[in-house]
Design a protein that fits this description.
It is a single chain. The chain is of the alpha/beta class. The protein has two domains: 191 residues, Rossmann fold (3-Layer(aba) Sandwich); 152 residues, Response regulator (Rossmann fold). The protein contains 13 helices and 14 strands. The strands form three sheets. The chain has a seven-stranded mixed beta sheet with strand order 7-6-8-9-10-13-14, sandwiched between helices.
Length: 373
């Protein structure tokens, strides 16, 4: 069989390094699929510019002009959700590769949109106890759009269920390059910890300013979405003090045999250090193509029938993975902490973190996501 896959993701702007990793992961999955199955895959790609309207327009262009059979990408939740709605309205199967907002498989779910990574609730529920073990009272600083808003709610709920206290939540604009006023606002509150629900390069910026301003002397730090490449852009001495984080994937988590191969080949093929977005791009391409092969068709309805309820037999992380009827891929969720500086690895790839805890997907996923097709 032959398929044309659209990779529509951030190729410019503050999320471009995340989008590029998704693209590399998708390319590696293509190589593996063509080696192992009777299939030929052409990849065409477009830049969302991290803008929902642009993302939708670029997807529409690839479907109508390039004839793509299915698509993946998005990076930003707001972009992914809008692309997912268009895909569902127009009969195209779409993997929201890096969208973590609960809304993606919740109240804004769509019949042909799938999430191959963890939701905010899954990530937050994996770390509430670890946060409470670190500090009793917390301030949550969050990016004020759908991902950050649902992340704030998920962290608040998880921490309170663990016995902790949320003193206040502070919304911040996205994008943003100066968090000083928000850090000072947090400093005026009587809390022991600061939960950072901010992503991408802006997460790196707020972390740098947190330490430059001496706020590490007042607060413990934690967060529900750790992506190693963000922290590789900081000094190791800072990264070593960033606290406990939930990770949808990290190169220190328990791997399958395929996972070990994945890590090595991301390094060899792309001269990149593997991190979460590589895994998201790989899983997105792999699952779309394998569902189409089982169906013998790229029809979105037939792909949906193959995915819903399907238990994966090829995964990168160890543990049970299966597609729920709301199109969430249920999977284990890990927390990680930084290694001591002297143990951080840069060759053959960067690996600065160590595995901390793991919860199985059914333990942390919402029982009722609120999704109605």
């Amino acid at each position: 069989m032959e398929f044309t896959a659209g990779v529509i993701t951030a190729r410019s702007g503050s999320y471009s390094f995340l989008g590029e990793a998704e693209f590399e992961g998708a390319q590696l999955a293509k190589q593996h699929l063509e080696e192992e199955e009777d299939v030929t895959i052409e990849i065409v790609t477009e830049d969302t510019e991290t803008d929902p309207s642009t993302g939708q327009e670029r997807m529409q262009r690839l479907v109508n002009r390039e004839g793509v059979d299915f698509a993946l990408g998005g990076v930003s939740s707001s972009v992914a959700i809008q692309m997912g709605r268009w895909a569902s309205d127009n009969g195209v199967a779409y993997m929201a590769a890096g969208s973590h907002s609960d809304a993606t498989t919740g109240e804004q779910c769509a019949e042909n949109m799938y999430r191959p990574t963890c939701s905010n609730s899954m990530l937050a529920n994996a770390m509430g106890e670890a946060m409470y073990d670190t500090a009793d009272s917390w301030v949550i600083m969050y990016a004020d759009y759908t991902w950050g808003q649902t992340g704030e709610a998920a962290v608040r709920n998880s921490l309170q269920e663990a016995g902790g206290t949320v003193v206040d939540s502070i919304p911040t604009p996205f994008p943003n390059d100066d968090y000083t006023q928000y850090l000072n606002e947090a400093s005026d509150l009587d809390a022991e910890g600061l939960a950072v629900v901010i992503a991408g390069t802006t997460q790196r910026i707020v972390t740098q300013q947190f330490f430059d301003g001496g706020f590490d002397q007042e607060f413990e730090m934690a967060g529900p979405l750790h992506e190693e490449a963000v922290f590789w852009g900081l000094d190791k001495e800072i990264a070593a003090e960033t606290g406990v984080w939930a990770a949808p994937y990290a190169n220190c988590v328990p791997h399958t045999e395929l996972g070990e191969r994945f890590v090595n080949e991301i390094v060899e093929e792309f001269d990149s250090s593997p991190f979460s977005r590589h895994e998201m791009g790989y899983l997105s391409m792999d699952q779309l193509v394998r569902a189409a092969l089982r169906a013998g068709s790229s029809d979105a309805g037939e792909i949906r029938a193959e995915l819903e309820g399907y238990e994966l037999d090829r995964t990168i992380k160890e543990g049970e993975h299966y597609w729920r009827d709301d199109h969430q891929l249920i999977q284990p969720v890990d927390t990680i902490t930084a290694l001591p500086v002297e143990e951080m690895q840069d060759d053959p790839y960067q690996s600065w973190y160590q595995h901390n805890t793991r919860k199985e997907g059914d333990e942390v996923a919402r029982a009722d996501s609120g999704c109605e097709f």
